[in-house]
Structures are given as C-alpha cells and as structure tokens.
Amino acid sequence: MFKRIFIILIATFIFVQYVGTSHGASSDSSSDNYLDHYKDAKKLILRAKSLEEKNKVDRATKLYSKALGKLEQAYKTDRNNPDILNYLGFTLRKTGKLKEAEKYYLTGLKIKPDHNGINEYLGELYVNTNRMDLAKERLAVLKNCNCEEYSELKEIIEKK
Predict the structure, then answer these.
(1) How confident is the model at residue 26 (pLDDT cuts 50, 70, 90)?
(2) How far apart are CA 152 and CA 121, in angstroms?
(3) Which distant-in-sequence residues (6+ apart) come within 8 Å of 64 by Cβ?
(4) What domains can be seen in the chain, in order of their start residue?
(5) CA distance 120 to 61
(6) DSSP state of 116
(7) How far is Cα 107 from Cα 63, in angstroms, rounded to an integer?
(8) Per-residue pLDDT reduced to its tens digit, 90-106
(9) Which long-range contacts link 123-129 to residues 24+ away (Cβ below 8 Å)?
C-alpha cells in the first residue's frame, strides 16, 4: 500500500513538473517575440530597399525607421547576435545616424569578424564618410569569400 502511494506521488510530481515546464515554455514568448521582431524588421528592410530602388526615398526611410524599432526590441533580448547588430547598423546608416551605425557594426565584428554583411555595410559607411583606407580594409576581409558582398563593395569603392 505504501509503495502504491509513493509511486502515485512520484508520478503526480513528474506529471506536474512536465506540465509546468511545457506550459511555462509556451507562455514565455520573449525568445519567440525577439525572433518575430527580427523577422519583421528584415521584411521591412526588404520593402524599404525595393522602394529605394524606385527612388521613393522618403517612404523607404520610414520603413527603415520602423525596422530600426523592431531591431532595437530584438537587441534587448539578444545582444550577441551579429545579424541583429548588422541590421541595426544598416537601418541606422539608412536613417542618417552614421556614428551610431558604426558602433553597432564594430560590435558585430567583435563577435564575428568575418561576417560578410557587416564587412560590406561597414565598408559602404566608410566610403560615404570618405575613409577609403578603412573601406579597403573591409574589402580585403571579404576578398576570399566568393560572395556578392565583395563584388558590391568593390564596385562602390571603384566608383568613388
């Protein structure tokens, strides 16, 4: 009899722990939420780039600002994600906040020095601020990546 009660108590305890853990995981959406912010920001950035190509710069800038807000929310949860840092730098650069953009790019490079996107966009920032030596350093990092980031940055540097 004692053995049965003991087994029932253990089974109940395990069941309560399992339900509590799975329920807690579904109600704690902060990690999912930050990913949603990041994904939403990427969509806004793609739309803004498309508008920019159509010379609709004002509308694009508004979308970059919205994306920036979502990325700032994602960054509150994950401060060590180089992709978030890359897009933070990108949206800040696109909204004219170049010094702040540079800080996020450099932080991202501390985490992942060979990040293609950060190296390209930081190189573009350096071109736009007439720091060609630094832009060429970013290009050198990308030289062996066999990626579009290299060719795009190279073209921008050559046009200057």
Answers:
(1) very low
(2) 10
(3) 44, 45, 48, 91, 94, 95
(4) 34-159 (1.25.40.10)
(5) 20
(6) H
(7) 24
(8) 999 999 999 999 999 99
(9) 123/153, 123/156, 123/157, 124/93, 124/153, 124/156, 125/89, 125/93, 125/98, 125/101, 127/156, 127/157, 127/160, 128/93, 128/98, 129/98
Dist CA 120 CA 104 (whole Å): 14
Neighbours of 88 (CB within 10 A): 25
Distance CA 137, CA 160 (A): 15
Q: What tokens does 116 get?
A: 């293609």
CA distances to 20, 21, 27, 91, 129 from 17, rounded to whole Å, are 5, 6, 15, 43, 57
Contacts of 88 (CB under 8 A, 6+ apart): 68, 71, 72, 75, 101, 104
